[in-house]
Amino acid sequence: MNIVIIGNGVAGITCAQVARQRDADARITVVSGETDYFFSRTALMYSYMDLMSRRDLEPMERSVYRKQRIDLVRDWVVDMDASASTVKLGSGSTLPYDKLVFAVGASPNMFPWKGADQIKDGKVHFVSMQDLDDCERLTKTSKQAVVVGGGLIGIELVECLLHHGVKTTFLIREPYYWPMALGREEADYVTEHMRHHGVDVRLEEEMTQIQVDAAGRVSGVVTNTGETLPCQMLGIAAGVKPNVERIKAFADAPELGRGIKVGPTLETNLPGVFACGDCAEIHYPGQERPLTELIWYSAKRQGALVGGNLFGDAAEYAPPLFFNSSKFFEVEYTTVGSVMDAPDNAPTLYRKLPGKYMSQRIVHDGERVIGFNMLGSRWNHEILERWIHERRSAEWVEKNLRSAQYDVEFGRAPLHKHDVQAMPLNKEWP
Amino acid sequence: MRRQNAAGWLLHDVKNRGVTAWLLFAALTIFYILIYGYRGGAMEPIANVFHGLMGTTSSSPDQWAKTLIFFLPENLVDRWTLYGFLYSVAVCTGGGWVIWKYRHNRYQIVRTSVVIFVQVAFGFSIPHILKFFQQPDYYFSYFWPLKFEYFQPSYIASHPGWLVFYTFAGSLVLVPVMTVLFGKRWYCSWVCGCGGLANTFGEPWRHLSTKSSWSWKFEKVSIHTVLALSVVTTAMWIVPSLPGVNLVEGTTAYAVITWVRSAYALVVVTVLCGMAGTALYPIGGTRVWCRFACPMAAMIGLMQKFGRYRIRVKRDMCISCGMCSKYCEMGIDVRAYAQANFSFTRASCVGCGLCAEVCPRGVLRLENVSRKDPQELNMTALVDESWKGQHSSVGSRT
Ligand SMILES: Cc1cc2nc3c(=O)[nH]c(=O)nc-3n(C[C@H](O)[C@H](O)[C@H](O)COP(=O)(O)OP(=O)(O)OC[C@H]3O[C@@H](n4cnc5c(N)ncnc54)[C@H](O)[C@@H]3O)c2cc1C
Ligand code: SF4
Ligand code: SF4
Ligand code: SF4
Known about the structure:
The complex is a heterodimer.
Chain A: E1 2-6, H1 10-22, E2 27-32, H2 44-48, H3 63-67, E3 70-74, E4 77-81, E5 86-89, E6 94-96, E7 99-102, E8 106-108, E9 123-124, H4 129-139, E10 144-148, H5 152-163, E11 167-172, H6 184-196, E12 200-203, E13 207-212, E14 218-223, E15 228-230, E16 233-236, E17 240-242, H7 245-248, E18 260-262, E19 273-275, E20 280-282, H8 296-309, E21 323-328, E22 331-337, E23 347-352, E24 359-364, E25 369-375, H9 381-389, H10 394-400, E26 419-424
Parallel strand pairs in A: 1-2, 1-7, 2-3, 7-19, 9-16, 10-11, 10-16, 11-12, 18-20
Antiparallel strand pairs in A: 4-5, 5-6, 8-17, 13-14, 14-15, 21-22, 22-25, 23-24, 23-26, 24-25
Chain B: H1 6-15, H2 19-36, H3 44-54, H4 60-68, H5 79-101, H6 106-132, H7 153-157, H8 161-182, H9 185-188, H10 193-198, H11 213-238, H12 252-279, H13 281-284, H14 288-292, H15 295-306, E1 309-313, H16 323-326, H17 334-338, H18 354-358, E2 364-368, H19 379-387
Antiparallel strand pairs in B: 1-2
Helix pairs in contact in B: 1-2, 2-3, 2-12, 4-5, 5-6, 8-15, 11-12, 11-15
The site of one iron/sulfur cluster has 10 residues of chain B, from helix 9, helix 10 and helix 15.
């Protein structure tokens, strides 16, 4: 069997490895235009801050590909012929396939801001290796920067710029930082934390116009308050979307929506053609809204599932109860279950350690817990998850919270010193 | 990308095998040659090359020591006092920096404080106090096989009974019991002076350890070879002094035994442990000796595999960023375990806790627990295993 996988991200490479486990003889080719080898996109910021080299970003030794006989091709796939079962590469050559997997990931959102079409240099995203090249090149000649978009990638970019001594303004359109995931109370002190680090955080402030100098390099942005912020670098981190732009130009292509449309087995409308990871838009029969997951572990799970389905498993993808973790400068964050997607005014217990950037929010529905937002200390999401499945009450959970702590030895967060407050979930946004 | 200013250049250069790192390596090497080049020692001819250039002699370092450490009685002070003093200063200042840097992490604060205390008290003060009272200068924080001579008959004969008892009880009872209960970290990251220096003064270079699977293979062979050699050499000290054994000078047996004993002392004790271990910091990372050659590490590493210590991995939370692997001074590819959802105990892990500290997603936790985890014995198995048969949920073996 001849398997071609487009994209060497975590979805594509996991898929290739599972396929190799299933079939020692299959021919497995992974094509990617971004880098020669799989690297960890999530660690871009550590390379930017000189905590790791570029090579350190590769999660596996290069010999693994040789040992597992996974052929790597560095090129862009530019076209596809479904009837002939071939894909065409940028170099002009074609690759035949028996099974094809799209694992093309996500690309950054860009909106038609006034002045955006004038930019020749100075605008960056923070998603690809090429973005990191741009960032590093521009940092050398930048004193001030503006970052647009109050999410995770935005705050990572801000931290990097600050590390390099670039004065940075963080424009957040919403009334507080990351309302998609955080309650107002948590967001307020995360903002305070950012400001403490020297970030000029602007809430409810939007970019309305981009200014460029004579050479076309970004020189400033105008915001909706009328203020002009001079800057030599403009970071756009206004979310990502499935990376289907290139595919739209294909002569043949699987059916596209926001992403690549697939059913529960992650197969597209073209038989033998699959999609997994950030680019997959999963449609479940009877469900109105498709599922698109832009998370590392989902990409990994989906890639593994497709690896088996290539051989006729027909296994259906079921997303786990949602969990994730992140870090806002030094404040660590763990979330499980439903928090900001819980019903309006859902009752919550909000526990906060006075004077510290540390809190726990337990969301429930009056009878049982449905979600957790934990900041400033470490938590074992496996236990929090179990409590949700076990339909534990908020009181029970509060009493047993200790057993889900995951802090370092000697460093257990002092739960008994927290103030506890019952409050409804305040969703001013969207 | 490094920071743009001069400080940024220097910091990057010295931490990443740049010119300044090599210069520091050269300086440290010369320093060690001068210290170990005492009259009659094997290093003396090499030291004399440098003394020739400086117009000094192989006994000069003892004089330098008396001048620099003027506050102690002269008869107590020699080059080893100077070395011990500088060592303690390095541990204290480096340790202060480490405590500040990781001030949000109580494990690091407690551990580093203990390391500083052990060095200042047991590694420097107590031996000198003993010497002052004309007692043998005993180091309570070292055990056989690291302190190799502790099991030598002549050493035992010349020390008071209670110290000999401590030596044997420490090496044969305390070390195994503590290691089974808490892992080898109780010693390598809390007590041992070598580990102490690595985790304080050595902090800027901890990431230089190689993580290749080849180095893992090499380490398993090299470190257990040294352990075997240390056992054999110890036997060569003990056996000749047993009643009924009569070793006659001039025989082949005598020649072989004395050669092995002095070769071990020179190569393992002096060059590898004494000099290379530290001099290599800026080039090979902080734990070259600890990882590839320390017989104590080999011994308690094997005990650790049967003990309660492990590093726990939270299921599916790892984003494969690699910070843990990068900052593991023992060259363990922690990421390979974390992304495969394997909790693990590696013989070489010294339990410094830095992998857990630097992990941006809080995936890792050092623990003492009674349960055992499945263990992958090489990188190929680890990589293969991690994807095997895990189609609907990638690995839930925690
Ligand atoms: C800065 C940053 C931080 C993140 N942090 C986290 C985090 O903390 N936790 C978390 O869960 N997730 C995080 N994510 C999201 C996570 O990285 C993604 O969910 C994950 O990488 C998706 O993997 P993938 O394999 O689907 O796609 P990708 O990793 O995007 O790989 C797709 C690859 O396909 C290539 N490609 C696309 N089109 C073509 C073509 N036509 N021809 C050839 N090659 C093509 C792309 O260039 C790319 O290399 C972060 C993302 C970013 C950018
Ligand atoms: S490995 Fe050996 S030298 Fe290193 S800290 Fe452990 S016992 Fe000490
Ligand atoms: S695995 Fe972690 S605790 Fe063990 S030596 Fe490496 S960094 Fe230290
Ligand atoms: S540092 Fe944490 S998230 Fe990064 S690879 Fe290691 S375990 Fe995974």
